[in-house]
Design goal:
The protein has 155 residues and is of the alpha+beta class. The chain has helices spanning 4-15, 45-58, 82-87, and strands at residues 21-27, 32-38, 67-72, 92-96, 102-111, 114-123, 132-141, 147-150.
């Protein structure tokens, strides 16, 4: 079986001095290698082809037969690495917390493994008859939410 760390090291080597970042490397039991990369401005197919060729040039098919797939982290898929959270600051996201509650709001900031979103919530002001919508900030831990992802909007 192909060593995941070997593939990860090859990808990191190729990524050096590029604005891309590694999202994930998965290797199945039947040696299907899936590499996901991302970039703040999106991923170009030509770069996926270059990375694929780079990996193939450094792995021997004589030693291991494998299938290789290189692509971008899917738009609208849950974030996997902190850099994805950073890339979506100022954009609309959806978060499913550990209790199963969904929040939709704007990614406000990222601090280490914590991130803050701003969302609308009905708040009843003292002395008011009805609640009003207000912007509320909520901070989550990347490791404690079920997912956070870019909210695709066709408005």
């Amino acid at each position: 079986m192909i060593d995941k760390n070997v593939v990860r090291d090859l990808v990191e080597e190729w990524l050096k001095d590029k604005e891309y970042f590694l999202v994930g490397v998965e290797i199945s039991a039947d040696d299907k290698i899936v590499v996901e990369i991302d970039h703040a401005d999106g991923v170009w197919i030509e770069d996926c082809v270059q990375l694929s060729r780079y990996i193939e040039d450094h792995l021997s098919r004589d030693e291991e037969d494998y299938e290789l797939e290189v692509g971008s982290a899917g738009l609208g898929q849950p974030f996997k690495v902190p850099q994805q959270y950073v890339n979506y600051i100022g954009k609309e996201v959806e978060v499913l917390d550990a209790d199963g509650k969904k929040y939709r709001g704007v990614m406000k900031s990222v601090d280490g493994r914590d991130f803050t979103i701003t969302f609308k919530e009905k708040v009843k002001k003292e002395g008011a008859k009805r609640p009003v919508l207000e912007d509320v900030d909520k901070t989550f831990g990347m490791d404690t939410v079920k997912y956070a992802k870019y909210l695709i909007s066709f408005k």
